[in-house]
Amino acid sequence: MTSLYNELNQRIPVTLIKLDNNQVSQNKPGFIQISSTDTDKQSKQLINHFKKLNIHPKKHSKEFRVTDDAAVPIGTTLSAAHFVPGQFVDVQATSNGKGFAGVMKRHNFKGLRATHGTSISHRSQGSTGANQDPGRVFPGKKMAGRMGGETTTVQNLKVIRVDTENNTLLLKGCIPGRKEGTVFIKDAIKNMVIDGQNKFRKLGSDDKHTAQALPWGVDSLPFPAATEEMAKAFPQVMQAPARPKKNDE
């Protein structure tokens, strides 16, 4: 993580994400598979699979659901320019494992009292609430156990800057996982509005949609995808404009 300042001199915490040679490895109606990070350490089955596609074997593969008209040819290398500064994305990764943790750290329990005879059990969970009937603890009960190390999704992160020269994204805020980890990024499924506000910008009558929900400063999204060849025609650095004050909106 690092931070940057926009034209209004506002400090924004950002996370840098590198797109490591992302290529389309499968293409079927309704979804595409994207593979990244070249490697020579793979199973023979996957190596043969990539050889048939004339693609260098990859370390990671992930399927993404798309519309039927968003077909991208196999072997296409995607660029960071596929994301538009100002849009919102969802980021999925494996969170940091924290080992065995008690209920106060894991589930934010308040613990037992610090007075009146409580002894050596100040941070315990207390009763689990089971009587003779049902005579057991139901699955999913909040108890002590392994914390972290799970697939976690952080939603509605704003794309602050796109660096096409270094093929890097700068997202506002933090994301799950460790440094040099692998993350999966997709368009936000909940927030395609102006900085979280329930407002819609009316488009012209010539557009096929009478209204479209896009963040402030974003007029359109690349469709079906922005390739490396397309990114060469874009500026080296593209940054989301600072949101104007309410009086100027």
Euclidean distance between termini CA atoms: 31 Å
Helix content: under 10%
Largest sheet: 7 strands, antiparallel
The best one-word shape is globular
Number of domains: 2
Helix/strand/pairing class, anyone?
mainly beta
Please give a structural write-up.
- This protein is mainly beta and 249 residues long.
- It folds into two domains: 194 residues, no CATH class; 50 residues, no CATH class.
- It has three helices and 14 strands.
- The longest helix is centred in the N-terminal third of the chain and has 9 residues.
- About 8% of the residues have low confidence.
Short recap of the structure:
Keywords: Mitochondrion, Ribonucleoprotein, Ribosomal protein, Transit peptide. With 249 residues, the chain is mainly β.
